[in-house]
């Protein structure tokens, strides 16, 4: 083997006695191939010389009638690259070129019309990676077979590419296999039943010689056994008798005669030893052969139907011929040997040792297992076509997202893959909706991961992102949707003045696509005055890149925090950033999810804001159930003037608080009403409730509040429940209508600011074990042994009487979701440090 000249565009030259082959390419792949190896396999007649680019080895090629060579070389064939192939006859022979896929085969033809002594063509494997097999014949006789290995340029082939396929194999019962693809990937024996006919045919094609050798060896030296047969014959022909013969004669004494004192029988049951091949093992051999013929028949029918009805062309003649030849050979052996007289096989409870030890039977049984079991991607045994790398990456992204979610949340619906299992392929159905539904055990909220959602219609051009994460949030009917779009593209040369960063990352036009997805996919809400509403809250590119730490400083990663659009590196060994974002999106409250999206200018003026200084709801308590019943029935409430400061006026609403100590541990706030009249009166004028004689306060001024009617708070509260007490209750308190409609327990009514409310909501979402401490000036929250204190413009995180983290309240107000995540990260870090 010789080294090609430096600077030559020739990648591979093969010279044989009959023909010469040259493969050229002007594009050199930009990347490090020093630690990567590729394989080149040649089978042919009279191979004289092989020249391979990018190698310094010289290997002599002996001019044998037939030779097999395997070379380990640096990668020279890559995706998305044009390769010119030239095949020239040395002796005027008519040449032909064959590849298992017609789109490759049809690109190579005669250089001049009608002259098949010179073939040429340009091959481009696009995004397809793996092994590709070429066969070149001269005058109809195969002279040379070439197997090349096509490498991806955006991922590492021996690691990421194989790991992607492993992940898919793990999640799907059969690897996504397409019989009509340009390249194939090697497979090894798996451990699951396989019903895919294309898989069966490809395996049988490779092992058929071994299969027939095993069958022929069985035919030449078959397993047999001796059996004893009995026959009634004249006594003079009987040669051997046994106990069965004696018992037969005892039952038939009329056949015996006595002559001259001698007892004799006219006829006897004689025993004969006979050789038979009708054994359980041979019946199983016949069953294997019959099932092979049946599967080949079914394959031919379905492959022909697939080629005509789905692929829109004629079936590959060589494939049909190979299938017919194999079927013919198997039937010939079955009908011209002892097997035609063997009985039908019935499943045995255990397998004979013959299939584990006897020559021929052992090999045939191994072939049978290979044919009847599923395949895992690996090894160098079987030729299988796989998806092109871009589509493989798209499939892997969905399946990996599914796998990440499945580990953290309860799977409800496993419908993640739709397959066409009655034809020639088993694939994820691109362009058709597939989804998986999960439940968050902490919140009870539903999580839906959708592949190829088909309903994303817009008022202009319909959009179809690859993956959409749909989240349900408590307290709202809004579905929060996020696009995770797989793009097998990367900007490896960020030096362009049009690229906004100096580090590798997603393509700019892909980022623009994310903007389009988020802004153009809308929902028609006929009940809303705005009519059309955006349904996508964020859009992210998943792209093949492995340096997550470096990418954290990339502009398109930071943009996720600011505008909720950007890119995330996603490969088998690089999933941390995606996992983190998924965790954040799912753990976000509905408020944080809303804050992640960008809003149009002026929207704040249109959104209703809560005035946290305005406490217009009086929370009224009772001294007895009778007092409550009277106020409820008469639609009024009364309170001493001394307990209501002037800045609390006017009172707009009254909520009735039934405390545990007065209502037998059945306390709650269930009813509230709108105040229509507030009058300052003497206590003595409130005659519906008699004055307690011990108090004698008839002249004390009271506010008598008349309400329009009492409403059930379960109709307006976000939770649909009453507000429960956590203590004996307050005397008189004030809150606002927002808190009254969004609180679960009474202490929540004391929250004093939007920042306190948002922090409490995030903390409550993260854990149900949260307490509120209110000391009238500052409010705090307790979670386990950690205390969160709002004090002097800061949020203090206190554990073991030490401040472990601080966050300015005004910073939290700007980005509550991200600020809270920083606090939780600090808590986790402290916990890990304490454990070490």
UniProtKB/TrEMBL annotation:
Domain of life of the native organism: Bacteria
Domain DUF2357, chain residue ranges per copy: 121-368
Protein name: DUF2357 domain-containing protein
The organism's taxonomic lineage, starting at the top: Bacteria, Bacillati, Bacillota, Clostridia, Lachnospirales
């Amino acid at each position: 083997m010789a080294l090609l000249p430096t600077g030559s565009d020739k990648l591979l030259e093969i010279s044989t006695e009959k023909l010469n082959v040259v493969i050229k390419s002007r594009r050199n792949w930009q990347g490090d191939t020093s630690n990567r190896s590729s394989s080149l396999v040649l089978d042919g007649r009279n191979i004289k010389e092989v020249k391979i680019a990018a190698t310094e080895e010289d290997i002599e090629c002996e001019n044998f009638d037939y030779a097999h060579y395997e070379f380990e070389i640096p990668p020279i064939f890559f995706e998305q690259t044009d390769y010119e192939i030239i095949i020239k006859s040395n002796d005027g022979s008519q040449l032909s070129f064959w590849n298992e896929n017609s789109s490759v085969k049809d690109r190579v033809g005669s250089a001049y019309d009608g002259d098949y002594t010179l073939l040429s063509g340009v091959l481009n494997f696009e995004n397809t990676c793996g092994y590709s097999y070429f066969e070149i014949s001269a005058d109809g006789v195969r002279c040379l077979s070439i197997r090349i290995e096509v490498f991806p340029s955006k991922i590492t082939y021996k690691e990421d590419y194989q790991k992607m396929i492993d992940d898919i194999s793990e999640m799907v019962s059969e690897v996504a296999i397409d019989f009509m693809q340009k390249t194939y990937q090697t497979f090894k024996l798996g451990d699951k039943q396989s019903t895919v006919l294309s898989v069966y045919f490809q395996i049988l094609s490779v092992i058929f010689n071994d299969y027939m050798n095993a069958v022929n060896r069985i035919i030449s030296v078959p397993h047999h056994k001796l059996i004893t047969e009995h026959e009634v014959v004249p006594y003079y022909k009987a040669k051997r008798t046994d106990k069965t013969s004696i018992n037969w004669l005892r039952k038939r004494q009329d056949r015996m005669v006595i002559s001259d004192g001698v007892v004799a029988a006219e006829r006897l049951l004689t025993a004969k030893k006979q050789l038979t091949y009708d054994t359980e093992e041979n019946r199983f051999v016949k069953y294997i052969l019959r099932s092979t013929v049946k599967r080949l028949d079914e394959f031919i029918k379905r492959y022909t139907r697939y080629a005509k009805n789905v692929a829109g062309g004629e079936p590959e003649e060589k494939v049909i011929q190979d299938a017919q030849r194999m079927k013919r050979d198997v039937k010939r052996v079955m009908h011209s040997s002892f097997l035609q007289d063997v009985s039908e096989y019935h499943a045995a409870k255990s397998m004979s040792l013959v299939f584990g030890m006897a020559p021929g039977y052992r090999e045939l049984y191994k072939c049978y297992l290979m044919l009847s079991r599923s395949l895992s991607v690996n090894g160098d045994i079987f030729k299988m076509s796989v998806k092109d790398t871009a589509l493989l990456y798209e499939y892997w992204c969905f399946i990996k997202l599914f796998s990440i979610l499945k580990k953290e949340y309860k799977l409800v619906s496993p419908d993640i893959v739709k397959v066409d299992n009655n034809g020639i392929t088993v694939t994820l159905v691109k362009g058709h909706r597939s989804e998986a539904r999960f439940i968050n055990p902490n919140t009870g909220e539903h999580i839906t991961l959708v592949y190829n959602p088909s309903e994303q219609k817009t008022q202009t051009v319909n959009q179809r992102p690859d993956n959409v994460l749909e989240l349900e949030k408590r307290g709202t009917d809004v579905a929060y949707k996020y696009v995770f779009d797989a793009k097998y593209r990367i900007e490896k040369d960020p030096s362009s003045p049009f690229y906004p960063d100096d580090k590798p990352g997603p393509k700019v036009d892909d980022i623009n696509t994310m903007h389009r997805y988020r802004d153009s996919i809308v929902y028609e809400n006929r009940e809303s005055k705005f009519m059309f509403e955006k349904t996508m809250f964020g859009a992210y590119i998943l792209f093949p890149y492995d340096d997550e730490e470096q990418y954290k400083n990339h502009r398109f990663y930071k943009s996720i925090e600011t505008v909720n659009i950007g890119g995330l590196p996603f490969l088998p060994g690089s999933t941390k950033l995606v996992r983190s974002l998924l965790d954040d999106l799912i753990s976000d409250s509905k408020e944080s999810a809303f804050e992640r999206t960008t809003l149009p200018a002026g929207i704040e003026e249109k959104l209703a804001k809560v005035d946290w200084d305005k406490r217009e709801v009086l929370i009224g308590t009772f001294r007895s159930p009778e007092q409550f019943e009277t106020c409820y029935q008469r639609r009024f409430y009364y309170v001493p003037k001394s307990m209501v400061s002037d800045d609390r006026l006017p009172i707009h609403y009254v909520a009735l608080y039934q405390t545990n100590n007065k209502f037998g541990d059945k306390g709650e706030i269930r009813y509230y009403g709108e105040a229509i009249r507030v009058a300052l009166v003497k206590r003595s004028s409130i005659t519906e409730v008699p004055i307690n004689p011990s108090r004698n306060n008839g002249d004390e001024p009271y506010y008598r509040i008349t309400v329009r009617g009492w409403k059930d708070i379960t109709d307006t509260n976000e939770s649909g429940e009453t507000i429960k007490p956590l203590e004996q209750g307050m005397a008189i308190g004030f809150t606002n209508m927002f808190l009254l409609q969004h609180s679960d327990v009474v202490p929540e009514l004391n929250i004093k600011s939007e920042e306190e409310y948002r922090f409490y909501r995030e903390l409550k979402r993260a854990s149900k074990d949260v307490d509120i401490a209110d000391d009238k000036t500052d409010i705090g929250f307790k979670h386990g042994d950690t205390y969160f204190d709002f004090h002097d413009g800061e949020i203090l995180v206190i554990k073991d009487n030490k401040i472990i983290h601080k966050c300015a309240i005004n910073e939290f107000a700007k980005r509550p979701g991200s600020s809270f995540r920083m606090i939780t990260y600090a808590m986790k870090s402290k916990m890990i440090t304490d454990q070490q």
